[in-house]
Inverse folding.
């Protein structure tokens, strides 16, 4: 069945040629039939690249070791899920996934963009064609995932054991759907600058694409954080790793873009800024792809790749982003100013929101690239860790988050600040009271730590209760007419529900991050059978050992027993040490004891034999309070994005007629 692999390679070549043709038709073509040709080519390119990707997955499923990528990252004993996910578990396969999503998004412009002006849609397809040609060309000529071996080995090298995990199987597709989704916004930003069409209709049409990409990014980042939490065995979920930051920066840019686009759609303002953010979001997405493949970073998240391919990706990044921003620099001065608004208005709070998020984005950008620049320019090795981000990023975001409930109750154009303060006073008082009660249960090592804890709780509860007050405002809720207000729930627009879920989810996340970050307890101790260790109110006892075979590994594990302060058995965690013969690697498998909000977390290290001949294991035992909220909050935020997309006013492809051209003459 080797001819199937050749079909995949031919389809990859065809996708590259079609992307070039798509861009060329738009650039050189004139006439009424050009749009039809470009649209047809975009659909054909998407089908071609999809077939190539399907062929790669099929090669992994049937363990075709004549394909280099399969031989290096798969094994016959791997479970089916990890055979499939192995298709994007390498640099080459992940680039093909990127290209597949990119061309499919281009096809979606064709299928969902019929309500747009033909010139704008055609130019956006041209930009998508150029992007497709660049990335498919890079994949085909320098990172071909379907490259063949002259002689196929009898067995493959298997996938890194750390990557054989359900959360990580879905993490890259979700992340790439967000990364590459920003390419549509980028294409329409460039098309609008060329076309001279930058109005409310443009913002209304671009906003759903940004929201779709933002939702996927939120899910992807959450899955990655959850994987790092329970798979890597260090007890944390976010380390400000440069590759983690590479996914966080486009999320921040997309968040600012969504709020800026709202102002542009409602008030025909912030046109230049919204377009700039549209260019910036995809630029950071491409930067993320570059950083994990450039060889500049050493991270568990990065691909071990020849730096020469990183140079090629850097060239694509510079040409694409440089071209977009150069065009912006030429056109931005001529953009007509939009509607005016008072200093006290929703527009003003959203502008402040954008400025603060942008400042936070700059702090992450600086902390991520500064060590790389120091290494490249001065050969000086250094790292920027959590203390920097907590000191710089944290205060900026606190102010931004405090503004969120205020902004949602502000009126457009001109607002009554006194009235807004009066409506939010009760919600703020409840938030402060809840935070004060919560802080009674925390005794920090320093006064500063206790102050940070209290402020963090206030921000989290403020987001939740302030957003609840926004819902009450939408329902015109009154205590003496509560039943009537509840009947109005079905009349609240889905976009409003989306905003409410997103903001409450953000508050839930903040509460989880603050409590877990300050109250987490851990202990590490060498333990033999029968030993016990105490952590807070919990006691962990090492009861027995067991061995069990897995699908493609052999495991040795420990049976532990956890009791609370009253002597009640809470759970029996069973952490493991898994040996993978195919790759000759050992991987620790964490055991979690779930409670409604907290986790008890146990992980075993390699066994050691003491001088007395007794075998012991290094065991790490964590108590992570409210950690569940850290992962539940972002899922609520993503649900908010989905609900907003279900609102007919924000569905992909829905567009109302807007004013032509917003450029001075």
């Amino acid at each position: 069945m080797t001819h199937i692999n050749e079909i995949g390679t031919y389809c990859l070549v065809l996708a590259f040629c079609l992307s070039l043709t798509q861009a060329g038709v738009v650039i050189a073509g004139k006439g009424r039939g050009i749009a039809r040709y470009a649209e047809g080519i975009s659909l054909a390119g998407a089908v071609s690249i999809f077939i190539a990707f399907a062929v790669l997955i099929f090669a992994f499923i049937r363990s075709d070791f004549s394909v280099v990528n399969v031989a290096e990252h798969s094994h016959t004993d791997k479970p089916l899920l990890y055979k499939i996910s192995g298709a994007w578990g390498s640099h080459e396969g992940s680039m093909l996934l990127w290209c597949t999503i990119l061309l499919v998004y281009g096809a979606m412009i064709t299928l969902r963009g019929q309500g747009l002006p033909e010139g704008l849609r055609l130019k956006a397809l041209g930009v998508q064609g150029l992007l497709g040609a660049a990335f498919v060309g890079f994949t085909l000529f320098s990172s071909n995932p379907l490259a063949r071996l002259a002689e196929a080995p009898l067995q493959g090298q298997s996938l890194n054991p750390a990557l054989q995990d359900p959360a990580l199987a879905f993490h890259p597709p979700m992340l790439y759907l967000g990364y590459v989704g920003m390419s549509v916004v980028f294409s329409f930003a460039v098309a609008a600058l060329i076309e001279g069409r930058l109005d409310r209709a443009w913002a209304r049409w671009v906003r759903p694409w940004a929201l779709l990409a933002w939702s996927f990014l939120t899910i992807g980042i959450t899955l990655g954080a959850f994987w790092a939490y329970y798979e890597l065995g260090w007890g944390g979920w976010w380390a400000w790793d440069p590759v983690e930051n590479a996914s966080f920066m486009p999320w921040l840019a997309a968040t600012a873009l969504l709020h800026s686009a709202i102002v542009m759609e409602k008030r025909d303002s912030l046109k230049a800024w919204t377009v700039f953010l549209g260019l910036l979001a995809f630029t950071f997405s491409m930067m993320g792809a570059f950083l994990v493949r450039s060889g500049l970073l050493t991270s568990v998240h990065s691909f071990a790749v020849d730096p020469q391919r990183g140079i090629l990706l850097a060239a694509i990044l510079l040409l694409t982003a440089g071209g977009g921003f150069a065009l912006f620099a030429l056109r931005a001065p001529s953009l007509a100013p939009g509607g005016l608004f008072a200093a006290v208005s929703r527009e003003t709070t959203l502008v402040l929101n954008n400025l603060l998020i942008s400042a936070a984005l700059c702090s992450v950008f600086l902390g991520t690239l500064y060590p790389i620049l120091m290494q490249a320019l001065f050969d000086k090795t250094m790292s920027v860790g959590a203390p920097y981000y907590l000191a710089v990023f944290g205060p900026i975001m606190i102010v931004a988050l405090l503004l969120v409930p205020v902004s949602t109750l502000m009126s457009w154009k001109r607002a009554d600040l006194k009235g807004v303060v009066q409506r939010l006073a009760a919600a703020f008082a409840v938030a402060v009271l809840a935070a004060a009660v919560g802080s009674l249960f925390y005794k920090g090592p320093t006064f500063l730590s206790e102050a940070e804890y209290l402020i963090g709780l206030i921000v989290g509860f403020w987001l939740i209760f302030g957003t609840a007050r926004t819902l009450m405002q939408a329902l015109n809720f009154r205590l003496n007419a509560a039943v009537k207000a509840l009947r109005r729930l079905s009349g609240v627009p889905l976009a409003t529900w989306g905003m409410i879920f997103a903001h409450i989810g953000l508050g839930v996340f903040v509460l989880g991050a603050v409590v877990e970050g300050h109250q987490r307890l851990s202990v590490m101790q060498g333990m033999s059978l029968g030993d016990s260790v105490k952590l807070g109110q919990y006691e962990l006892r090492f009861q027995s050992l067991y061995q069990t075979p897995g699908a493609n590994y052999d495991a040795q594990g420990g049976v532990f027993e956890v009791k609370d302060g009253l002597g009640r058995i809470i759970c029996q965690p069973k952490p493991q040490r898994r040996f993978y013969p195919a790759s000759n690697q050992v991987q620790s498998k964490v055991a979690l004891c779930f409670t409604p909000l907290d986790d008890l977390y146990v992980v075993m290290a390699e066994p050691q034999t003491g001088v007395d001949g007794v075998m012991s294991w290094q065991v790490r035992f964590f108590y992570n309070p409210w950690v569940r909220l850290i992962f539940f909050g972002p899922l609520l935020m993503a649900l908010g994005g989905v609900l907003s997309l279900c609102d007919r006013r924000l569905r992909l492809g829905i567009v109302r007629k807007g004013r032509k051209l917003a450029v001075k003459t």
